[in-house]
Structures are given as C-alpha cells and as structure tokens.
Amino acid sequence: MNNKINKSSLSQRRRDFNFLLPLASLRLTIALLSLSMILIFVATLEQVRIGIRGALAEYFESFYGIWYYPEKFWGGEILQDIPLPIPGGYLLGGLLIINLTAAYIVRFQWTFKKGGIQLIHLGIILLLIGQLTTQAIQEESRMQINKGEKSNYIERFHGVELVIRDVTDPAQEKVITVPQELLQKGGSHSDKAMPFTVNVLHFGVNCDFDFATAEKPRSPMAEIVNRGVGQSANLNITAKEEDFSSDALNFGYIIFELLDKGQSLGKWMSISHPAGNQVWSQMSPKLSDMGFQSIRHNGKLWGVALRQEREYLPFSIELLDIENEFYQGTEIPFNFESDINLHLEDNQTRRALVYMNTPLRHGGKTFYQYQMNDSANYSVFQVISNPSWLVPYIACVLVSIGMLWQFSFHLIRFLRKNSQTPQKA
Amino acid sequence: MGLYIAFLPNKFSQASFINFLGKDNSNEIDQNETFDLQAFSKIPVLRGGRVKPLDSVARNILLVLRNKRTALRVLEQWENEKLELIQSLKKEGNELTEEQSKFLKIYSKTRKTTIPQGGIEVAVTEVDAIDWLAQVLFAPEKADKLKTFLIDHDQVLGLVNQKLLDNGKFFSYEELEPFLSNIDSSARKAGEVETEVRDSFQQNIIELYRSLLIYKKLKHSLSPPTTPDRPEVLEQLGVTDLIYSAEKDRARSDEYVRFRKLTAELTKDSSVVQLGSEKFARVVFFVDRYNQANLWTEFLPIPPIIAEGDGKWMKVTESLVGSEPLESRQKQNMDPARFALTLRELLSLEKTELKERIAYIKENQKLDPSALFATQYAEAIKVKEGVDPVIIQYEELAFAYRNQNFSKFNRLVNEIYELTTTRAGSTASTLSFEKTFNGFEPFYRSAIAYVLIFIVASFSWLMAAFKKDSGTVRTLRNSAYYLTIIVLICHTFGLAARMWIEGRPPVTNLYSSALFIGWASVLLCLGTEKYIRLGIASAMGALIGFSSLVIAHSLSLDSSLNPTGDTMEMMRAVLDSNFWLATHVVIITIGYSTTFLAGFLGIAYIFFHIGCTISNKPENKMKKTLDSMIYGITCFSLLFSLVGTILGGIWADQSWGRFWGWDAKENGALLIVIWNALLLHARFSGIAKTRGLACIAIFGNVVTAWSWFGTNMLGVGLHSYGFMDKAFDYLMMFIISQLIIIGMAYIFPITWKFLFKPKDKKTDNIDTLPNYDSLD
Fold first, then answer.
1. How many C-beta atoms lie closer than 10 Å to residue B182's C-beta?
2. Domain span including residue A239
3. pLDDT one-digit tens code per residue, A273-306
4. Fewer CB within a 10 Å sphere, N or C end of chain A?
C-alpha cells in the first residue's frame, strides 16, 4: 500500500466531510465514555432498589433517567431530594455510534498499519448496534412441562392476554384472544366469531388479592363483579404497581362485562397467575376455575380466562425425565437436567438433553434449563428468541483480530526499543 | 534467603519442599511411643462435597471456629513449672537429661504465649489442627477444654459473661456450655432478621451459633449421639439390653451388630412386619434413632462400597439404615397400614429385585410418603448387610486412642488408610499431596517473601537518591529481580497445586481470584523488570502480590463467603464449566490484575513526581519510562478486560440466553473496559500528559476494586455468588486512599511551589481543584 495516497485520501475526506469534524473529536469520545461510566454505575446501584428490569427501563432503554441519591448513603438525608438527570443508554449509545462513524470517515487513516484500529472500532460499532437491536426485539418467555406430558406453546414472562374459547365441540375449538395493548386501552371489543362484545372495566398488570370477609369487604372495584369465580369465591383485589425485581410475581387482573346486543350478561373478574393458570388449583380449590370460567350462552359453552400471553410453536416438546443432583452431603446443586423429545413439524422426533450451559436451539428459539421441581415432577425452560444473536459474535471476532493486530505492532516495537537501550541505574 | 522462605523448612510452616519429594518425616517418629497423627491426617473423608484428608477437615474447621489453623491448650500447673525449670536449667548452661530434653522438644515445637484470663496470666501452647481433631473425635472431654472458639464482639462476650480483652478472646466449649441456651435463643431471634439488615451483634451471635453447631456435629461424626430416651420407655420396648452402654460394651459397633441381628430375623420372616409386633417395634426404634443421628455429622467417613458402584459416601448411621427419603415430619402424612403392607411386599422380594423395586418407587411415587418410608425400612432391613468394617475399625481406633495404645493406634491408622483409599478409588489420589500442601502453606511463604522484595527494591531507590553508587544499586535491583523469580515459582506452585487437587482452572471463587490477581501481576512485573531494571516493577509487583495474598487470607476467614472454611469448595451447576472458567474467568482476572498494576505504577509515578518537586530535580527519563509502562500495561488491560468481558457475554449467551443482561458484575467488567479505553484515548488525543495518565490509571484501581468486590456487596444479580458486607469499610478506605493520592498529585506540587518558590508566578493561575476529566 502506498502511504502517500492514503494520507491524501484522509485529507480529501476531511475536506469533503468537514462538517463531521466536531462529531469525530476525541474529546467527545472521552466525554461520552465518562458519561457511560456514570450511567452504568448509577444503573447498577439502582438495581438494588428497582431490579434489573426497572433499571433497564429507566436508564438503559431510554434517552435519559432521573436519579435520586440513595437515602441510605452518606449525606443521603440532604441529597436524596435533588433530581439528577443521567443520560440514558439510547442517547449515549446513539451518540457513540455517530462519533465512531464520523471518526471512521474523517479521522482514521485507511492503511494496513492502522487496520487493527479500524477493525476494533468496527467491532465496537457492531456491538453497540447489536445491543440496541437486541434491547428492542428480544423476547423472553417460559415453557413449563410436567413429566410425561407435551407442550407446544410458550408463555411470556411479562404481558397477559384475555382468551375466550368456544369449547362446545372439543374437536373444533374456537379461540379468540385480546392482547394486552387492547386491554390497556379499555373500551369494548368484539369479533365476528363470538356473539358478544367484551367491555373492559378495569385492567392492570399487577394486583393483590384475598378472600373478602365481613370485616374486610370487597373494594369498590371488585364489588361490581357478579358472575364467575370473582363472585363465588368472594374475591377482593387491589391494584398494584408493576414489580420490576427479578423474582417478582405480577398478577395481571381484569374486570369485564359481556354484552349481547347491548344487554349485559354479567360482570366477571379474572386474574392471571405469572407461573401459569394451572397453579390456581394448588392455591385454593375455590380458585381452581380461574384458568377456565365457563359461560353458557345460546346453547354454546364458552370459557374465559386472563393468562400470560402465549405463543404457539409449530413443534412440541415432551418431557421424558428430569434429574436434579446435589454434591454429596451439601446443598450445592451439581446438575439440573431435562431429558426431552422434540416433536418436529414433519412428524419426526428428536431426543435431546437440556442442562446447564447446554440449551436446546430450535426454530430460532433457545430453550434454557430455568427451574425444576423434583418432587412435583415438572421442569421450566426459559425461551428466548433473539434474531440478532449472531451480531455480537461477529463483533467479537472483529475486535479480537483488531486488538491482536494492533498490540502485536506495539509490543514488538516496545520490546525492540527497550532491549536496545543499555540498562542504567 | 528467598529460597529459605519459599521452599526450605522454616518456622513459618510445618512442611517444606523436601516433603513433596516422597520422604515423610512421620517415619522418623517412634511407632510405639506416640500417636502417628501425620498418618492419621491423611485418611480420606467427604466434607462439603469433596473427598479430602482429615488434615484439611481439621484445618478448615479450625479456620471457621478460631480464624487460625491451630487450637490453644492451657498448660497444667505442673507442666508449666516443669517447663520453666528446664528452661532455666538450659539458660544456665546445665546439661539436660534425655528425659528433660525430650520434654523441652515437645513443648518447643509449639509456640508459647500467655493470655490473661480473669486477671491471671496462664501459659498456653498451640495444638496442631490434626491433634485437636483427634481429641474432638476420640476424647471429646479433653477437646472441650481446648480454647477453640473466637469471640471478639463485646456484646456477644457479655452474653457469655466475659469481658473483651486484647489477647483473651478464645474460649473452650466447656466455658461456653453454661450459656448454650442463651446463645441458642439469641441466635434464633437474630436469624429471623433478614441477612442484609442484621446488626453486628446479630451477625456475630449467628456465627458463634454456627461454630458451636459445627463443633457439636464434628464431635458426633464418628460416634453418633445417644438418644436421651427415658429408661422406662426403653424397658417397655425391650431394647434396654440392645443399646450401647459404656460399662458393658467395648464399642458402639456392638450395638450395630445387635441391630443387624434384629433385621436378620425380619428378613427371614417378613410376616412379623405389622403394627403392634414387638420385634418390628424394636427395628422401628433403631431406625428412628439412627435417622436422628444422621443429622449430627459434619463429615462423611464411610467410603463408597465398591460393589455398589455408585461412589456414594455415607455417614456412620447412614451406612446402617440409609437416609430418610422425605423430611421426618412427613411421617405424619403416612398411612400406617399401607406402609406395613408395602414393606411386607418389599421384604418378600429377592435382593436384586428389591433394589429395582425401591428405585422404581423412589422415581414414580414421589408424593406418597407411605411407600417412600417403606423403601427406607426395606433398605435398612434387607439391602444393607452387616456393619461396615470401616465403622468397626474407627471404633477400635477410638478405643486405642483412649487407652494410649500407641502401636495399636498406628497399626489401625494404616489399615483404615489402606481400606478407605482403596474404596474411595481415584477421588483419593491427591490426598497425601493435599496434606503436605496444607503444611507447606505456599501463599503464606510467598506473602512474607514479597515484603522482603519490596524492602530490597525500595532500598535500591533510596540508594539511588542519596548515593551515586550505581554498583550497589544495581546489585540490589538484580537481587530483587531474582528474588521475584524464586517467589513466583513458589506462588505458581501453590496455584498449580490447587488446580491439581480441585481438577479445575485456577479461578473458581473470590478467594482464588485474589491469589490469581497477585500471581498475574507479579508475573507481568517480572517481564517488565527484565527489560526495565529500575526496581519499580519489582516493588509494585511485590506490593500487589502481598496485598492480594492478604486479601485472599481475609476472604478465607469471611464466614458468609466461606462457611465451611474450605477454599476449594464445589462449583454450583451454573458455573460448572471448566472451559469457560479457564477462558472467561482467567482472562477477566488477568484484566483486573493488569489494571491494578497500571494503577500502582501510577501511584509510583505520583510519589516520584512529588519527590522531584521537593528535591527540585528534573524527572525526564524516569517520567518517560513510567509513562510508557503505564501505557503499555493499559493496552494489555484493555485487551484482557475486553476479551474477557466478551467471552463472558458468550458464556451468558450459551447458558442464560442473552449476550448481555446488565447484571451488576457484567456492568463492573464493562466499567473497567471503558475506563481503560478512556485512558488510551486521553493519551492519543494529548488531553492527558504523564500526570493525568497516572491519575486516570490510579482511578482505574477504584473502578477495578468496585468491579471485583463492590458489585458482590450489592447482593443482586446472577454473579452474586459471594455476598459480603464486612469488607465494605475496607473497600471504602481503599477508594478514599486512591482519591487522596489523585488529589495530592495536583495539589501538592502547586502548594509546595507556592510556599517555597514564590518567584514562580505561573503556578498562581492554576485551578487547584483536581478533576480527572480535565487533566493536566
């Protein structure tokens, strides 16, 4: 390569894109890096208070966040009331991408010797873009299977849906679902497959619930319920903020009215159990119908329930066996393992083992061993679909090559220089 | 000198390099005159999920109870008098008789200190860990008198009616016994409080309670506790003659043999298995008794039975009756009639069929307590046979110990060792190495030697500053360099030995990360010193090496991090991947150590800078060297921390399904990467000159310390495998000290020039507030 031409190409680029010069400045880079330090540090501290998901929403997946100095720290009594704006992940990430790209155009020498630097920064840009897209499109779900049974759907960790099923003919079941976005808007929803309209009266993503007693009657919100489990179990609920902590249980709730041509059929209440509606029957026999509240209407049998949002898969998983081992004489887990049969789309079956550090990847989804209950014989997989999962891998390869490239140049020079100078005390 | 500290026998540790070469000094002792405790200490047992020699068990437990690897014994008055007499004889230059010199030898092996107790000075002698363990197991009445428990919290001391004295914080079980119920109730109350909000009294009382529990369990590990049943109950059941009595029986194994006779009868005739049957009631009594005893054991002494092939270690009573399939209180949910029916059915089967059937029930009837408990009884009655020979041998051993029968004890020790190691198979292959390794204490030796190196290297600077005698300076620097090589071999050996014993990569927990950070820094310094023989890299390496070993030692004492006292604990399932431990964890740890090294070089520069200001000398050459050293090492830091972090992301993607989860520890690692990148960019852009660079590097220490420990203190996230709160104050002090150095770098030269060189007007304009974003 000819250095002269390249150098002039840099000055040519500088002339052509001179408006990019301030954006490419190293001072901006340093400022952005310093601000990212603050962002990450604050967001880590905040995880103690609002959990990882809370910190994600407030700081990383936003343009700015507001931080209050923790009360527990030194001087917290005085400082806790001052709101401090912290630049968010989208802002800093975006600016860093701009800064890097601009530097690419107007600052980097496109030469062999500097190839390492370019590769590193290209990798970093890719990492940033990959993380931004992941943050935006990654979906987390769970799949719970009892031993010996099959499952062909996954449930979202967060997000619920109202499901109305026509089960008159078990062979031809009709299912209508109303997703969370529509429920949150409220109002009435209808579908030509069902003879009634659903009027959402109250909806929330989390609640506290208990059985009402004479001393503690139902709240005004729960009082209006006059059909179904909410009425028969005399259930009382109070709305609650969504809990973002990692081991939180958010019970979504809905109170709705069914109308047939403007005439009310009654008001129902339904709560979604975050671990799946099959858990209700274990909690109390009074609540066992929560997963399927039956409604007879015009000679047809309908069932309604609020449940975690489901996604049906074109394949199914059968749990053959589970294993849960501990080191002898300790409570340190040694192995969690699910032995499964994967029933594929084309009627083929594949045997697989899912255990720690070894997930099952199929159909763009990855199934990780998440929880296990040995005595109740069930296993839970965490299911993640992240179409951009390959991006960080590519970025890593680029960065690694670039670093080796660059540092080997430096190291050789450093060693050569120092071995030539005579030692002086 | 270095060799002496690092390898040869010396007073710092019990074993030396020579011991690894095969010859054991235990052969020297007279087999007929003393207990061969060295051989005893090699016997394998299972504790904390790992097969280890009794030596490790003894040391680890003492580390938990007393924070030391020895116990203390108060000398009897006659011993004390005799010792003083002999010592005074020796001092006067008298010839000692053979008996006297032998006596002196016994007591000189252990150091003698005095501790005040109740106002009286008493002489104490240190008791080796294995000696202590033998007493606890075989002669508990003696062991109860040894000072084994550390209590240094004034309120806890108040609870046991003692005052806080500087040197008198060690107590024996006997001294604590009257207060057991107080300790128990206070600890229970403290246990109701959540871990994060416990105050220091609550933490300390819980620690004491746990220590006492470990001690009690340890005592009963070989000899299960006797149930305090009332005699009339025993009489009614007709078991009075069957249970062990100290007067009639030689050993507890006699009781086990009688129990086996009972079960043999049931095996022959399973029809007696029904409620109300006298014979069956007796068996039930014993099974219950042994089930309870199962809870009282600190380690598992019975090695796996080769024929079973399952590699399962057992407790003494477990080898007799197996273990309960469910919690004991589940017995309330049992249907007695169906239980008896199932048991009769099981007992009518042939042994192999029975085993299959038991396995089937355990697998498929998990929610049926009647069937599950029936399997345990069937196992206890028909599957288990006889009494394990190891139990009988241990009983004989205890008998020999109590009767001071040296030769028999030593013969039995060898027999047990042979038998248990054969049965333990390959898991026992590192035992005798581990025992010698324990005595060698390579990290303790290295820590001392690092201090020596630091002194030598610093001395070379002093010489260089005050005398221009370059010959001496060079000799000093060279000797520091060669000392580092020797000590590094010792340190490396310690790490390698741990890797071999564990069968794992070097870093598996916080403790080993500290060992490794020290090691990697010293190695890097050695490489730097090879080319730049200024003594700086040697000194800083020694400083980091020493501090990291001290940190490692204090981590091993932290009861929340290391509840069993064993720093080679088993890995949780999610971390159990040698590949990722070897790549991600090792690389990121090297990243930590290089960042620390750059930071310490930064500190070295700041002190040099201040020194030059005071002595008003130019700092040309040294400045340039340090500048390029900090820069070069930071390049390494960035390489390692970035690659390590990315590998961590890949591991997370493999096992949790996301590349990056903003977990506290991940964020910590990212902070280091960003900070290193920031340093390099600040240098490239010319924003920071040498002083600014040094200050950025020093702040890197803060960032790294936060990432290493601070994130664990938050107690959130997937990586919070070691929650610790005691170290918080130390972390804060470290951070503040680093900030002070940074502040000094800016304020000191200015004020100095201002005070002593008022002619220089230029300095007056400079803003005195240090800020590491606007550097130099």
1. 14
2. 157-311
3. 888 888 887 778 888 888 888 888 888 888 888 9
4. N
